[in-house]
Specification:
The protein is mainly α. It is built from five helices and no strands. GO terms for molecular function: NADH dehydrogenase (ubiquinone) activity. This is NADH-quinone oxidoreductase subunit J. InterPro entries: NADH_UbQ/plastoQ_OxRdtase_su6, Nuo/plastoQ_OxRdtase_6_NuoJ.
């Protein structure tokens, strides 16, 4: 929900980067959970607080839905600004830009992902 605000402010590149960072963080979290729980042979015992936790979750969802429905959303009447993606891409990846830095960062992320997969894979 918060990743929509840069898009509404005509910062579409920032919105896309924010979504990609969230996706990356969630992926790392999932890989970490898999790595930490792969040695578990039996399931977890049942929890006595499962039903109260379910009720609290439903109550929370109802409060969020109530807030979303009753909020007077303001729609901007201003015309949209020029997209900033092309200009920013030209500065980053164009002549005199940071193409080498971007490629090195991409290679490091690929190496980290492959390393995590090798660690998680069963032997």
């Amino acid at each position: 929900m918060a990743s929509e605000f840069p898009y509404y402010l005509s910062a579409d590149f920032l919105a896309a980067v924010q979504v990609l960072v969230y996706i990356g963080g969630i992926s790392v979290l999932i890989i970490l959970v898999i790595m930490l729980t792969r040695e578990v042979q039996r399931g977890s015992p049942s929890n006595k607080l499962q039903f109260p936790a379910f009720l609290v979750a439903i109550l929370f969802l109802m409060v969020v839905a109530f807030a979303l429905i009753n909020t007077p959303w303001q729609v901007s009447t201003l015309p949209p600004l020029e997209p900033t993606t092309a200009a920013l891409a030209g500065k980053l990846l164009g002549e005199g830009g940071f193409i080498l830095s971007v490629e090195i960062a991409a290679f490091l992320l690929l190496a980290a992902t492959l390393g995590a997969i090798v660690l998680v894979r069963e032997k």
